[in-house]
Amino acid sequence: MLLKPPVSNMTEQFMRYGGLMASKYTFPAPDPSVKTEDTVTDDGTKVRIYTPDGYTGGKPVCMYYHGGGWAMGDVNGDDPFSRAISKAGGIVVVSVEYGLALDNKHPGLMNECYKALVWALANSKRLNTAEGRYLTAGVSAGGQLAFATALRGQDEKSGELVGVVGIIPATVHPDGVPEALRTSYTSMEEHDQHTINTSGAMRDFWAAFGAPPTDIYGSPLLHPGIKNLKKVYMAIAGQDTLKDDGMLMKRMLDDAQ
């Protein structure tokens, strides 16, 4: 099953895909060793706070942004990722239920994600996290939001960034790839039919998101500040349309060292 534009149809397609998976496989229950609390920020954004058993405090807060092409998904869908990061890292994770495109287009969507970070930093005592220290994480479109929020946090001097985790991240608009890197940006077409996330779907997601191709937060690969991202963990999928987003980001990070 492949996602096919427009965005207005892809949500239903993805739900059918989820139903098909649920009919074929048994998924484990949420890990009970990680406790959760649903709340809202001062700006009204819903967030879910994950705290692992035995947590004693004093560690950086992790801001997590779910995937779904900026137009689908929610904190429930990415709940396993948030729990895994919280448990494995022994840290508090704040998963952000940002408003989706088309209703929450650029720059509103990224602004909301950044404001959630500001809220978390201002509430370090409530969260029992290290004051002023944070990392960001996300999958796919959420990976783009993780990089964008981290870079904006650095630009606006919002605390100390300790790292970024990008899982199959979107890092650059297909029309914003620098000329010098274009010959290395082939996976969008090469793997068009290899995963649920087709090239057509990805382009429609970008259109729904609304960030201009050369916006340095929308396309964090283009941000000059990536040289200051000292700790970055990325995982990519070799047969995915976003493979080269991750590979090019790694090249840029390596060249900046």
- For the largest sheet, list the strands in their spatial order: 1-2-4-3-5-6-7
Briefly note the structural class of the backbone: alpha/beta
User: How much is the average pLDDT?
Assistant: 95
What's the CATH H-level superfamily name?
Answer: Alpha/Beta hydrolase fold, catalytic domain
Characteristics:
257 residues, 8 helices, alpha/beta, Rossmann fold, seven-stranded mixed sheet
How would you describe this structure to a colleague?
The protein has one domain: Rossmann fold, CATH 3.40.50. It has 8 helices and 7 strands; from the N terminus they run αβββαβααβαβααβα. It has helices at 7-24, 79-89, 108-122, 124-127, 141-155, 187-190, 199-209, 243-256, and strands spanning 34-40, 46-52, 59-65, 93-97, 129-139, 160-167, 232-235. α3 (108-122) packs across α5.
Please give a quick description of this structure.
Helices cover 36% and strands 19% of the residues.
